[in-house]
Amino acid sequence: MLKTPTIVLNVKTYMESTGENAFEIARLMEKIAEETKVSMAIAVQACDISRCVDAVSIPVYAQHIDPIKPGSNTGWTLPEAVKMAGAVGALVNHSEHRLILADIDTCLLRAKDLGLDTIVCTNNVAVSKAVATFSPSMIAVEPPELIGGDISVTTADPGIVRNTVQAVRRINNTVKILCGAGVKNGRDVAKAIELGADGVLLASGVIKAKNKEEVLRDLAAGVL
Amino acid sequence: MLKTPTIVLNVKTYMESTGENAFEIARLMEKIAEETKVSMAIAVQACDISRCVDAVSIPVYAQHIDPIKPGSNTGWTLPEAVKMAGAVGALVNHSEHRLILADIDTCLLRAKDLGLDTIVCTNNVAVSKAVATFSPSMIAVEPPELIGGDISVTTADPGIVRNTVQAVRRINNTVKILCGAGVKNGRDVAKAIELGADGVLLASGVIKAKNKEEVLRDLAAGVL
Amino acid sequence: MLKTPTIVLNVKTYMESTGENAFEIARLMEKIAEETKVSMAIAVQACDISRCVDAVSIPVYAQHIDPIKPGSNTGWTLPEAVKMAGAVGALVNHSEHRLILADIDTCLLRAKDLGLDTIVCTNNVAVSKAVATFSPSMIAVEPPELIGGDISVTTADPGIVRNTVQAVRRINNTVKILCGAGVKNGRDVAKAIELGADGVLLASGVIKAKNKEEVLRDLAAGVL
Amino acid sequence: MLKTPTIVLNVKTYMESTGENAFEIARLMEKIAEETKVSMAIAVQACDISRCVDAVSIPVYAQHIDPIKPGSNTGWTLPEAVKMAGAVGALVNHSEHRLILADIDTCLLRAKDLGLDTIVCTNNVAVSKAVATFSPSMIAVEPPELIGGDISVTTADPGIVRNTVQAVRRINNTVKILCGAGVKNGRDVAKAIELGADGVLLASGVIKAKNKEEVLRDLAAGVL
């Protein structure tokens, strides 16, 4: 389980974060995490998991797992394969990769069986509550309309963070809560924590930054 | 482009062919391919591509690519990532991972741009003809009802192989044609070639065999 | 809102229950419902809603609605269209038509806005709990492996019914609970009610019966 | 089979064309078709097929059919149901409702069996060629980026219309060809025919018009 508060970076499928570029970012995160003692994790493409695990000691997550058991599932992401490649967990139900409700249940059961951590992405308070009943490791609430945008969810809609924290804790107070969408700097991180969240999930704020190290250091400062 | 006639092994997501088990099978194939000079290739899970490429010199394929460009596509399989991990090509539209028609077109264009080989799976003669208009590297026709079964397509439905070969060649005679479903031994391979195919695509016939080396040697003998 | 206990018949897309055949079954249900005072409802194909509504006075449900607003959604099922055709509600997330989690939330909000009743189908206790947080009108729990089979869920797995009732009531005691899968006769209905359910959802038990009237009368007797 | 040249109106799921509003538009089309002798057809939501068929004598199409046979397919669109409701055909693979390649093949076979006309939508010349190998009744090419826009495909990209006509005719000269996307007036229709198309498929150009009758008359004038 990730130490919290934490900063989870989803590198998506940008060219700036595919293959060697992803490992470079992971190394930067590892260095800053060591220096600042702030908990950081990276979620990379399935193709990049094993090499990223070889390159760094920070926790590496898959960006997705499929609700399958070993067998005939050509081209799908087997939780066992993710685990064997060295990932410690997986994002589940990201807004760019939504799952059928029963399949979220199956993914979480499969992950639990294998000792994989799960960060389930949600779009609002109601869906966060529904997911909380499944007891994932973490829930990451991200209003889809703010993802990839210029204004952080913590500024644009602080209520969704506060209300998700409150509603999820009432159903299951062992679930950690992240927030995401538009998160870009230390102020956004500090605000997320102030609103009760256990950290942030972000992507373009780092990947598209000219100076990734500077942005990562600023994000870490928001935790401190 | 794969030398033909060829034997392409899709290891799917069986436990017997995930992680280290997949690399073991790949090494076996490499040994037999070198000894017999029969062309062999392996299609592994995205998580296993880079380590498999490190382990062997036979061509490694992805089992799937998504119809996407670099960007915000969390958890999907970016053709560039597959290429950077070291794969030479990808299965497209496998019966366990069908694609929307327009997305097959996009996948093939993306693969062509990146210099990736494509093996497009089809279920019958009509669909094979439609795919032939796109000029993939190869078409692999596999009647879904025979996949994973005990009787080889070359025995159960030789007509589908012969008619696919004929129909595809008429539309585009640069496209290579594989057949699959139930293929298990050298006789099936020899029959496939006799029917005009350029090789076979198979999975459980090898993966579920007690003695994988024996089966692979027998398959190779079918080419000779 | 349906009066409970109730018997809801999903006619699916069988030939025996398409077009005029569906209206025939609806008329039979109407007659028996009137005679026995047992609450009965029918869920028909989108194409058949308006004519079925014209034919009978029992409540007519859609088998599905899509999570959409009026606009550019060619070929999808608009909740408004279902309502205007005369349906009083809709099945949502049937095991043959599963939805993405966030889309269940959207469907339920859309239905509530339009005054449509919702019967959300679930596959187990955990998923039923998650759905209960959304406050649908009803939840219908149906273990997929028993659907269309010979043994009623009330016999094969009474625990799933009892535990769903208990778990859902704890989260939201206004939600009514149906059970389904293999339900065929009055004994199954009586058992469902004894286990705490508010009725049953069934399909082939009636549609595939030689004497539909006899089966419907027997089901009604199970309520009495 | 539709008489060509023809104007096919897809009413989508706009409020302006749901339920009674759809029948109103259909009556308008019927009146103008009778007066001008221009061939016109309307594609309505599944819920609205039977009432629309009762209301008018112009051909009524479904907006979609699913690749299914009668059976357990809750909430999907059975070709038989569409036929029994009175539709003469269906749009297949609309850009808002894309299908898996093998499912297009199945839909077309099912439609042929039932005597239903098919208008298969495509996004470019390559996909149109692939579809032509299946021999549908009609192909409607619509560049997705122009759909719902202000500039007609016939102005923005006349080459796609001309090249689709040419490529499809070469593969199968019995297939009729429509074009769509941004089509709004008689000039667009005339240009489509001049480019070799057999008519147009349009939606918002009529549905969102203040004066639908005026627009429909202008479109008809483009054929004359």
Protein architecture, described:
4 copies of one chain form a homotetramer. With 224 residues, the first copy, chain A, is an alpha/beta fold. Chain A contains 10 helices and 8 strands. The first copy, chain A, has helices spanning 20-36, 49-55, 79-84, 101-114, 125-132, 153-156, 158-171, 186-194, 204-207, 212-223, and strands at residues 6-10, 39-44, 60-62, 89-92, 117-122, 138-141, 176-180, 199-202. An 8-stranded parallel barrel of chain A has the order 1-2-3-4-5-6-7-8, surrounded by 7 helices. In chain A, strand 7 (176-180), helix 8 and strand 8 (199-202) form a beta-alpha-beta unit. In chain A, helix 1 runs parallel beside helix 10 (212-223) and helix 5 (125-132) packs parallel to helix 7 (158-171). Chain A is globular. The model of chain A has no long low-confidence stretch (mean pLDDT 97).
Describe the structure in brief.
Chain A is α/β, with parallel strands linked by helices and 224 residues long.
| Share in helix of chain A | 40-55%
State which percent range the strand residues of chain A make up: 15-25%
Number of helices of chain A: 10
Uncertain runs of chain A with pLDDT below 50, 5 residues or more?
none
Order of helices and strands of chain A: EHEHEHEHEHEHHEHEHH
Instruction: Give me the secondary-structure category of chain A.
Output: alpha/beta
The major beta sheet of chain A can be summarized as: 8 strands, parallel, barrel
Shape of chain A: globular
Count interface residues per chain for the largest interface: A-B, 43 and 43 residues
Radius of gyration of chain A equals 16 Å
The average pLDDT score of chain A comes to 97
How would you describe the oligomerization state of the chains in this entry? homotetramer
Distance between the termini of chain A: 20 Å
Strand line-up of the largest beta sheet of chain A = 1-2-3-4-5-6-7-8
